[in-house]
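Thread: "does anyone have the structure for this chain?"

Original post by V.I.:
We have the sequence but no experimental structure in hand. Need at least a predicted one for the grant figures.
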Amino acid sequence: MLALVFLAAVAAAAVQNESLPRPPAPRREQFRVIYEWNAIDFEWKSPEDRKTYLNTSRYIPQNVLISGINFYQDDLFLTMPRMLDGVPATLATIPVQPVDTAPKLRPFPSWDQNAVGDCNALQFVQNIEIDKNGIMWILDNGRVGTLTQNPDAKCPPSLVLIDLKTGKNEMERIPFPTDVVNPNTTYLNDLVIDNRDGDYAYITDNSAVDPGIIVFRRSDKKSWKVRDTQSMSSAAEATFFRINGTTVNLPVNIDGIALGPQYRNEDGKVDRKLYYCPLSSFHLYGLNVSVLQNETLAQKGDGALRPHVVDLGTKASQTDGMKMDASGVLFYGLIGNNTIAEWNTTVDFHIGQRTIARDPNYIQWVDRFSFDSKGNVYVVINRLYNFVKNQVSLNEVNYRILKSHTGSKSYVFGEDLSEPSVAPQSAAAVPALASSLALLALAHLLA
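Reply from O.Q.:
Generated one for you, C-alpha cells below.
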C-alpha cells in the first residue's frame, strides 16, 4: 500500500513538472513610419465638391489634425477633432495595409454623417474605442471650434455606438444628461471600455472648469461623474512644454486613460485598475473600477474619491494618450523627451518604466495608440504644439503614424476572469499523462 501511495505521488509530480514547450518571445521591432502627411486630404465625392469646400472655408487643410486612432479588421480609424473651422469630417478611415504613404481619408460612416450642425451626425470626435464585440464607442463633444474665440455647442455631448459587425454602420446616439456633462464646458477626451457586468465606459472630461471621469453603464444607459481635484487637475509645474525649440503653455486637466487586466481582490471578486493622468502633470494615478462603479461617490462630491486614488509616481515628462495591452503593459508617450515608453504594471512604477523609442525628428508629440490583431502597435504623432500655436506649415510633415511589432494585443481582449476558464489539454501533456497512468498501473501490481 505504501508503494501505491508513493508511486501515485511520483505520478502526480510527473504530470505537474512535465516541462511544456514555451512559446517564443514576441519579436520586437523598432518603430517605423508607415504613413505621413503634410496636410490631411479626403476622398471627395467629386473634384467640384473639394473645390466648393475650399472656396467656402469648410475645408482648411492646415486646420485638420489627426488625434485618435483605432483598429478593426482591414481599417484604421482616425479622428479629426473640430478644434478649428474647416474640418470637413471628424471621423474617417484608411487601410491597415499601406498602399500610399499619404492616403486620402474616407469619412466614416459617410460624408452626410459628418455634417456640421446636424445633430444626427458626428460633430466633434476626439477619440473612439472598439470593444471585443466589434462595437465602436464614439465620444462626440457636440461643441465645435474649441480653439476659437467663440466655441459653438451645436449638439448635445453624446456617446455614439456603431455595431461594426453588421456592416450597416447605423449610429445609436446617447446624449449625456446636462447634470452630468455641461455642453458648454465639457471636453470629452478619451475613453476605455470594460465589457463586464453590462458594459462600462470610463471617459476623461478635461473640462477647464469641471474635470473628472464620466462613468457610463450601457445596460441602462446611465452615467455619472466622479471628481478628484488633486489628481485630475493640471499642475502648475507641468503646464510648460518645450519640443525641439518650440514652447507652449497648456494647462490641461485629466487626459490619458488606460484600463488594466482583470484580477481577483482579497474577497475573490473580479476588479480592474484604471490608470489616468492630466496632460499637464508628471504623475500617473490609479484606482479600482469597483470604486468608479459606486454611483453614490458621484453624489458625495469631490472629496469622496480621494481615499481611493493612488499616486503611482512620476514620469520623466508629460503624457497625452496611453494604451494598455492585454497582458498589463502600458504604452505611453513622454512629450518633452520625444519618447515612447512602456511600463509592465506588475513591476513598481518607480523602477519599471522603460524607453522603447526616442527620436526628436519623428516623435514630436505622441498622441494616441492602437493595437491590431497581429501583434502590432500603432502610434499617432501630430505635433500638437504647432497646431495650438497656429504654426502648421504645409511644407513639412505634420502627422505621422508609426508602427512596431510588439506581440501585443489590446486590453479589450484580455482574460475574462468572470467566466470559468477550463485549461485545454495540450499535446505536450499527453506523454506526461501516459507516464502517470503507467506508474499507477505498476503501483497496483506491486501493492
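V.I.: this helps a lot. The two ends are 5 Å apart (CA to CA).
O.Q.: and Confidence is low (pLDDT under 50) at residues 1-25, 421-447.
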